[in-house]
Amino acid sequence: MRSPSRTILVALVALALWPQPSLVAAQAEGREAQATAERVAAEGMAIGSPSGAGGDPQTSVAQPVFSAGRAAEVTTSFQPLLGPLGDPGGYRAFLERHGITFGLISVAETYRNVRGGLRRGSTGLTLLDLDVDVDLGTLAGWKGATVHATVYQIQGSGTSRSRVGNLMTISEIEALPASRLSELWLEQSLFDDRLFLRVGQLSADTEYMVSQTSILFTNGTFGWPAIFAANMTDGGPAYPLSAPTVRLKYVPTRELSFQASLIDGTPGGGKPRSGIDPQRRNPNGTRFPLSDPPLAIAEVSYAYNAHPGDTGLPGTVTFGGWHRFGRVDAFTPDPVSGLGRRVSGDSGIYGVIDQTIYQEPNDPNDGASVFLRASASPGDRNLVDFYFDGGIAYRGLFPGRSDDTLGFGVGVTHISPVARRLDAMAALQSPTPVPRRSAEIVLEATYQAVLAPGIALQPTLQYVVHAGGGIANPRDPDGTRVRNALVFGLRAITRY
């Protein structure tokens, strides 16, 4: 029979050896912290890196891994998942050794308008985006020279055109089906990479009025804002259109940059007053218009607290403006003849703030950022006189999902007073009710889940208030406003 003292001794030893809950938790936290440190070391510091959307240093900790927006710098690829099949024959590696790199992005999405809008129903869109970059220094010994080309294959129908009727396009990839050349340019860097001259066919939405945080959202207005799309001829040189451009960028310091572009002002070419959709006037992006009155865009950006050791949270502030030369249509008629009149030029100003508001203590690549953008244009010659959007995004909010990003955004497009007065005049002359437009508002909530390198899913929910600013529903004989729309969407993105 075991003695009591021996029994007590065995119990004490077992109790000492039994893992305590606090010790187990501490060990788990230690392993998690070590894994996080190893992952951050492998990734490198995101803040201050040159991978910020729009070509500036990254200051938004919540910049997503993926975006269909052209301003995004998407580098992840599913090639490693395929093993030897990821580069059959070693052709991709061979091209890279000779300065030629390429990426193929596939975006497939579906949206369903469940209530309101023009009519309920579903739509689907697919986009294949092939990007090719050639370092002429490596390939041919031409130091500082780079060639870039982007080609699209677009299929499907858009929700805004066929289901909602709004100004702020439900999807940033909505366009008419086409095989299209988007960009083709040559860039030369000068003076120790402080001055960059780019010439060719360019899209302005890759570099101007870009927010590193807002590129998470699927609504098109969070990329190329609705005020630009509504006021610039042919919607401006932005997806899916582009135009011949000369762009100069000066980077005197790592934090500060100036850039300006002179662009053919009619991306669709031909006659913009003909009423023909500019995507049909330039169906494949190979028209290259050169004789139209030019569009000038310029902006200055400053990135702060982006260096290691800087105190304070990082952010970027941007100011810019644009001017369209030549004659444009005015909303107000000639005071003498009462006929439509044309005025000299059009313009706009804008500002952007991207601000990181929180970084995870153990993972500086995760945290929350906010953004705010605003723009204004003259109301006597433009449908939209004021615009702003803003929102918040958090990358790595949930444990074990460091690459996922959650975001909430809102955009407001204000109809100009002159356009509203014209609505009031039309209502007086019409036998049926004609609504007076005011503003369109869109709210979006989205979550981007990165499933593996180069693969992501992104559900989205959008609510559109006063589509088109409050237009009459063409399907309603009583002329009532288009009802507020609720739209669900799901996007799948892959990159090779």
UniProtKB/TrEMBL annotation:
Stored Pfam families: OprB
- Protein name (Swiss-Prot/TrEMBL): Porin B
**Species assigned in the record:** Methylobacterium cerastii
Query: What range does the record give for the signal peptide?
Result: 1-24
Q: Which domain of life does this protein belong to?
A: Bacteria
Per UniProt, the keywords (alphabetical) are: Signal
InterPro entries named among the record's database cross-references: Carb-sel_porin_OprB, OprB_Porin, OprB_sf
Q: To which protein family does this belong?
A: Belongs to the OprB family.
Gene behind the chain:
oprB_1
Upper classification of the organism = Bacteria, Pseudomonadati, Pseudomonadota, Alphaproteobacteria, Hyphomicrobiales
